[in-house]
Recover the amino acids of this structure.
């Protein structure tokens, strides 16, 4: 899309449309320089540790069930053995589902942390873009732009404002 806009301005149709004024930011640098990356990482690690703890507790319960089964297998009736094997299998399937659910939960929490961290950054970017009359601001690492003049880099200004309290 950006290429199409640029082609229109180059092909002599510039008088028909306003010129594209764009800037870019380096989000990784912003996150590192402001400590946001560390805070987000700490929150994410806490969620992962809680999930890991729940999984380990469930795994230990399954191991105990298996040990109890092996210990008592010789004295169990066929129906008791079958019932116990089914219970262990069911618990293992529940464990696998729990692991999947916890991974989904971790991913959702990480997205929530990122969204929370990005709110002040987004506001500052919007403010700077408005002040500079920019039509677009791109993330340097994610955009499909093959070249960007460093003079369009807004990263330092965003970092300064974040450190100054977000204004």
């Amino acid at each position: 899309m950006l290429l199409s806009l640029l082609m229109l301005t180059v092909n002599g149709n510039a008088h028909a449309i306003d010129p594209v004024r764009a800037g870019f930011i380096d989000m990784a640098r912003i996150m590192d320089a402001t400590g946001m990356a560390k805070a987000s990482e700490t929150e994410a690690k806490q969620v992962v540790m809680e999930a890991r703890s729940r999984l380990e507790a469930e795994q230990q319960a399954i191991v105990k069930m298996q040990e109890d089964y092996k210990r008592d297998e010789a004295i169990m009736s066929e129906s008791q053995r079958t019932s116990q094997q089914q219970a262990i299998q069911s618990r293992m399937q529940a464990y696998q589902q729990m692991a999947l659910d916890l991974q989904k939960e971790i991913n959702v929490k990480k997205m929530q942390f990122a969204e929370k961290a990005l709110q002040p950054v987004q506001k500052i970017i919007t403010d700077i873009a408005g002040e500079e009359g920019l039509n677009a601001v791109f993330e340097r690492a994610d955009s499909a732009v093959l070249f960007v003049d460093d003079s369009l880099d807004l990263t330092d200004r965003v970092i300064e404002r974040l450190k100054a309290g977000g204004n």
Summary: Confidence is low (pLDDT under 50) at residues 1-15.
